[in-house]
Amino acid sequence: MQVGDLCKRQVISIEEQATLVEAARLMRQHHVGALVVTSRDAQGRHVCGVVTDRDLVLDALAREVQDEDLRVGAIAHTTLVLVSEHADIGEAVQAMEHSGVRRLLVKGSNDQLIGILSLDDLIEAYSAELETLVRIIRSGMAREARANQLAAAPADQPLLIPSIGRATWASVVVGV
Questions:
Q1: Cα–Cα–Cα angle for 76, 78, 83, rounded to 5 degrees
Q2: Which stretch is the leader sequence (predicted)?
Q3: Cα→Cα distances 32→35, 49, 64, 169, Å
Q4: Band of the pLDDT at 1, cuts 50, 70, 90?
Q5: pLDDT above 90: residue 38
Q6: How far apart are CA 163 and CA 42, in angstroms?
Q7: CA proximity to 81, closest of 54, 99, 97
Q8: Which of 99, 130, 141, 160 has its CA 20 to 30 A from that of 40?
Q9: Higher pLDDT residue, 128 or 120?
Q10: Which domains does the chain have, with CATH numbers?
Q11: Residue 169 above 60 pLDDT?
């Protein structure tokens, strides 16, 4: 499975000069936990960072922010971790683990941002695959159980102990 199949294509962005309150409202409005932070220059809008709901809460509290003028760009993570839409999910997991992030920016073949892949997206994909695997295993076990029941001797017939033949006994039972 490829990253492009799993990533959220609707990227919600915010200008780096927006306030933390504006960022929180935008996250709430769109039910997302991260925003792509952008800056604007003569060539257009560029990705310059990522800010998460956790950043808003923890950074604001750690700084004891009373100032409504604090801007998103001041707390955004500016080290961006990109992954190709054609990368497989194993590569995405490695990128997250190596970089210590829970969200990856997904780039398309034209090097433009096409989505965001979160750890939650990966967990959801893996859990769906595990559910399929469990179903396959249970189906196989049920098939084996049915086949074994057909091959088993009927319960109402006694099982005979061979006295002579192919089977040999490893010990002697006394008193029989």
A1: 115
A2: none
A3: 8, 16, 24, 70
A4: confident
A5: yes
A6: 97
A7: 99
A8: 99
A9: 120
A10: 3-118 (3.10.580.10)
A11: no
